[in-house]
Amino acid sequence: MADSGATHSLITRSTLARFPHPPAQKTFKPIAVLGDASTAIAVHGSVLLCIYINSIPIYTSVFIVDSLGADIILGMNWCHNNNVLLRVPQQQLLIRHPRYGATTVPFLDIVYVPIRLAQSIQLALHHEHIVSLYAPVPSALPVFCTLDSLLCMEKQLVISDVVLKINRFHTYMLIHNSANTPCTLRAHTIIGLEKPSVNQIQIHPWYHNRDIVNYCRENDIAVMGYSPLAKAKKIDDETVIEIAKKLSKTPAQVLIRWSVQHGFITIPKTSQESRLISNADVFNWSIPDSDMKILDSLGDLHWSCTWDPTKNTLKEAGLQQVLSE
């Protein structure tokens, strides 16, 4: 992300760990201030990186920080040192390299950023409120907001999926308090989250979670399925056993392979070494399409092996007291 309000370029520790880089250097600046001139974050050193943009190598010094609204922010030091021009009317960056010539980079159509309340607010019961929100970028349009579903469930808030316009680090959103009591939200409460790289949800043949899976795939979010064996509650299912016998595999292998064949990251749990070895033996064979369709049809009944927070509350599931103990 390029930010004309940031004086220096920044990169998160997790992003930096993904690729080889020169050793980090100590810096005289322990704190970096974002483009809003108020958000301060701790700096853990600096590193010189070579960033390729349209095959043009561009070197820049970046501060290392713990977290950002993006993996990397290219600030004004990057723009000045590399002769970068922000063409806002044309919605593009113009990069003029002395050796490799000029190239342009279009602005993203949609970006994902975390947003939080700009100030504390009292929400009257059963009323809609327009609230002011802060975003860690100076301006952007459109911005997709991924809502904090746990906050909405806990506070009984209704917030529709929205596409926002950010202007001078601020935007606005409509929030409905559906509770029978007033609700107070403190300043800096996180309302919208940045796009996750992975979404971990319950996935097995009896619980497809199709709506969430489709959303993740449309938005380039990897799907990680927990409980691929349905907590062993369906391990003796006749359909699974029949397919396992036909393929000379265990029922657990069939269930794990079903997830793998659908393109899910799957995380079966076991405490026994023999089962661990068996569970990992799912990559050199496949389930025939006809049997995959049979396994897929098991999801028509929509059976869950654990609590589904998208379908009912903790109280409705009888888990509120258990979790509070």
UniProtKB/TrEMBL annotation:
<dbReference type="InterPro" id="IPR023210">
    <property type="entry name" value="NADP_OxRdtase_dom"/>
</dbReference>
<protein>
    <recommendedName>
        <fullName>NADP-dependent oxidoreductase domain-containing protein</fullName>
    </recommendedName>
</protein>
<dbReference type="InterPro" id="IPR018170">
    <property type="entry name" value="Aldo/ket_reductase_CS"/>
</dbReference>
<dbReference type="Pfam" id="PF08284">
    <property type="entry name" value="RVP_2"/>
</dbReference>
<dbReference type="InterPro" id="IPR021109">
    <property type="entry name" value="Peptidase_aspartic_dom_sf"/>
</dbReference>
<dbReference type="Pfam" id="PF00248">
    <property type="entry name" value="Aldo_ket_red"/>
</dbReference>
<feature type="domain" description="NADP-dependent oxidoreductase">
    <location>
        <begin position="195"/>
        <end position="298"/>
    </location>
</feature>
<dbReference type="GO" id="GO:0016491">
    <property type="term" value="F:oxidoreductase activity"/>
</dbReference>
<dbReference type="InterPro" id="IPR036812">
    <property type="entry name" value="NAD(P)_OxRdtase_dom_sf"/>
</dbReference>
<dbReference type="InterPro" id="IPR020471">
    <property type="entry name" value="AKR"/>
</dbReference>
